[in-house]
Amino acid sequence: MTVDSARLQQLFGIEGKIAVITDSGGNSSEDIALVLSAAGARVVLADKQADTMRPVVERVRSAGREIQSVPTDVENEASVVALFNEVKALWGSPDIAVNCAAMTNCGPLTEFTEAQWNEVLSVDLKSVFFCMREAIRHMKAAGRGGRIVNITTMGSLHPVLHGNGAYGAARAGVGGLVRSAALDYAKDNILINNVMPGAVQGKVRFHPDTLARMQRGEMIGPGTDVERRRPLGWGRPQDIAAAVLYLVGPSGGYITGHGIILDGGFLLT
Hints:
Elements: H1 5-12, E1 18-22, H2 29-38, E2 42-47, H3 50-62, E3 67-71, H4 77-90, E4 96-99, E5 103-104, H5 114-142, E6 146-151, H6 165-185, E7 190-197, E8 205-206, H7 208-215, H8 226-229, H9 237-248, E9 259-262
Parallel strand pairs: 1-2, 1-4, 2-3, 4-6, 5-8, 6-7, 7-9
């Protein structure tokens, strides 16, 4: 069978779809915005740091595609509600929502404070709840279904670094939230999944405390043994974006409540 460009468009094209991409300091959102835009979507990029959005907006617009940036604090309920209301006023209810906010702070559990725990869960779980809830509300009201993808981590399935309990717990919580919501809203044709990267640099923002531990050589664990534990070496941010495109396009029409693992073969070792 010969697959022509029209057939590829039928599988992966999202021409005219409205895609909201949320982040917290520019993790995976840049590459995802570029790929979804190239596939035909009108993109709304939401991040509280305007300087991380500006270069993406310029690149997309220079390619002749539509994109808007909306300053948003994904950890703040009112800010997320305002974001989705603004999207509706701008272009209509979203067809696609991709949540990229991520922050990890690693340290011994016995030394982890309540404030540190709450900080990690706020970025990595609470923000996903806010964004998923508002996306689902608007998708249900529009009545044409939708796709939601959260960028989490394979570390929620298997430890990668020592001291990563808070991040792993938060992301495992997202997995539970996704499975429950996917079941609840399948009847509305709202499909909800995770992309779970492992060895992809730049997918998660490191807390300053973690960066200091890394500089002191304290951040060790099975995932740091690159040659033995990652047969394919480091992944690329584009790998995440490609998985998202699969899930949000016609190609992803028969998958919900699951996670695509991008770990370079880590779980094989």
